[in-house]
Amino acid sequence: MKHYGKKLIAMLLTLLGVSFIVFAAFEIIPGDPALSKLGDNATPEALAALRAQMGLDRPFLLRYLDWLGDCLKGNLGESYSYHMPVIRMIGDKLPITLTMTILSMLLTLLISVPAGVLLSKYAYSKFDRAGYVANQFLMAIPSFFLGILLTWFFGLILKWFTPGGYVSYKKDFWAFLSYLFLPSIAIAIPKCAMSIKLLRSAILAEADKDYVRTAYSRGNSTMEVLYRHVLKNAMIPLVTFWGMAVADTIAGSIVVEQVFNIPGLGRILLTSISHRDYPVVEAVILLIAFVVVLMNFIVDLLYRRLDPRMRKG
Amino acid sequence: MKTIREWIKKHRNFNFFAGAGITSLILLVALVGIFYTPYASTEMNAAAKNAAPSLQHIMGCDNYGRDIFSRVMEGIRNTFFISLATVAIGTFAGILVGSVCGYFGGLPDDILMRVNDALFAFPSILLALVIISLLGTGTINVVLALGIAFIPSFARIVRSEYKKQVTLDYVQSARLMGAGHLRLIFVHILPNIVPVLLSSVMIGFNNAVLAEAGLSYLGIGVQPPEASLGRMLSEAQSYLFTAPWYALFPGLVIVLMVLGFALLAEGMTEE
User: Fold this and answer.
1) Distance (Å, whole) CA A219 – CA A203
2) Residue A47 contacts by C-beta under 8 Å, 6 or more apart in sequence?
3) Residues in a beta bridge with A78
4) What pLDDT is recorded for position B254?
5) How far apart are CA A53 and CA B259, in angstroms?
6) In sequence order, what are the residues at sequence separation of 6 or more whose Cβ sits closer than 8 angstroms to the Cβ of residue A302?
7) In terms of CB atoms within 10 Å, which of A38, A207, B41, B191 comes out highest?
8) Helix, strand, or coil (residue B67)
9) Confidence check: pLDDT of B231 > 60
10) Is A169 left (phi over 0), alpha (psi -120 to 50) or beta?
11) Chain A residue with minimum CA distance to B132
């Protein structure tokens, strides 16, 4: 229990650091938010008044604390170009990107664990060699190129789905989910290849250890040894990898959203970057970083559950 | 020369040679691309719009009738040099930050590593996006943005290596001999972490290639009419049905680039 408290504090500190970095980064942009809000024809008096009203004349640290307090209350500011609260703009986009991230993480798990076990079972055979070559190749494919290939093959040749035919989750949840399936595959496949490779080598490394011989000598079958003993240990490095893969998956989904024309966080981030709509950029970045930190925290908890040795240490 | 031959002998394996082969092919194309392309990369030809691959245009033509192979050559060159510069920035700054943190430890180390942890929460392509949104688009800014985005991971690796090395006997004896901090950091310890650094540089290069391609796919990166592999892919998407080769070739080239380097890195670490 003490450990979880420590981890929680570390996570909160990281979140604080993240928020500070984001705030500071957008403070050093050349340009005056009051000026961009009022336009070039504003009188100096009006500018000064708005600056005072926006609190721009106050010291940096105080403004950071104000901004942080606002963020905690769910007030992420107002978009420069759409003149509406940022939270309303990104609130209904977050579920889209989040669904895609979770779906691709799930796919990675569901594909890579059985495949990794299978490859290590037939280690050093022709099947294993073929798997190795396929893995190396798949690892090198950028997910957006894979997305284009999938669109071409399943959308234009087989006509299994309409490219660009995104359905909102508010309208039809199942249609939404099935449209997100291919993009999630595109994100998941390179990650799968990496985890398969990692799992195979972890299982093979574990298989040489003493406890495996002991388990065999006690009359366990290969299946029992594999599933009850080896896999449990081999999963530990994999969980670390998956924790790091979360950030990559979210980043991947930002790019792959564009391939499949999905109006998620990625779309809003890119349009606000090109419009220099900084409050929106700031909010999206902050949100993504928070999700990453949170996911890492969860992975860490899982790690402890999986490995009793870590619980004591 | 002898050491290189011995080194190759030691690392003679399939991965190494396959990787070296692919990488030198790509490198050759990139180098030739500086001086010569079959057509000018921006030369438009209305008669050859979306032309299929043929003997004149081995990868076909794009929607303006530009020769795709020439543009791919230019794209490889751009991606290659951007990634190289990116990794150079990341490695250099990473060594500076990581070595000082790992060597001295203490409060500065704690603070810098906290900052590093926080920066780690941003996926590198996202960090690059933020930096570009602050700096503006353009090749130089892409290099800077990606380079900065790569610093945290390099710094982390270098730091943990320095932490390990600092406790070793050779560092202690060098210190007793009167070597100063700078000398210890750069002359004594640095050469010893080169193997670790080398493999992370190679992985970093691959990540840089992927990130650069991703950024230019998003339209942030090398600006037209200059060719870039990522942007070609995004332009090709509108012509997927009529000219699938337009997407296929630039994409395959990215795959080959990453694959070659990955195999090379694997071959070098394999015993």
Assistant:
1) 20
2) A32, A34, A35, A38
3) A85
4) 93
5) 55
6) A239
7) B41
8) strand
9) yes
10) alpha
11) A273
Domains of chain B with bracketed CATH: 15-32+64-270 (1.10.3720.10)
**B65-97 residue pLDDT tens:** 788 888 888 889 889 999 999 999 999 999 999
**What ranges make up the beta strands (E) of chain B?**
none
For residue A128, count CB atoms less than 10 angstroms from its CB and return exposed for 0-12, middle for 13-18, buried for 19 or more: middle
Least confident of A24-28, B22-26, B183-187: A24-28
ipTM > 0.90 (yes/no): no
Token couple for B57: 């245009």
The separation between the first and the last C-alpha atoms of chain A, rounded to the nearest angstrom, is: 12
The answer, yes or no, to whether residue B255 has pLDDT greater than 90, is yes
Segment holding B191, helix H or strand E = none
Rounded-to-integer distance, Cα B51 and Cα A23, Å: 50
Please list every residue in chain B whose beta carbon sits closer than 8 Å to the beta carbon of residue A288: 122-123, 126
Between A123 and A2, whose confidence is greater?
A123
Exposure b/e, B174-187, CB count within 10 A at least 16 = b? beeeeeeeeebbee
* Rounded Cα distance, B115 and B216, in Å: 28
**CB contact (8 A) between residue B258 and residue A142:** yes
Instruction: For residues B178-207, give the mean pLDDT.
Output: 86
pLDDT of A145 reads 92
User: Among all chains, which residue has been given the structure tokens 């093959």?
Assistant: A153
Strand partners, B67: B61
Rounded to a whole number, what is the distance in Å from the CA of B125 to chain A's nearest CA? Answer: 7
Q: Calculate mean pLDDT across residues B168-182.
A: 87
Give the global pTM.
0.86
Inter-chain contacts counted by CB atoms under 8 A, chains A and B: 117
Inter-chain touch A288–B126, beta carbons under 8 Å? yes
Measured CA to CA, the distance from residue B19 to residue B270 in angstroms comes to 13
| Two tokens, residue B106 | 């203490």
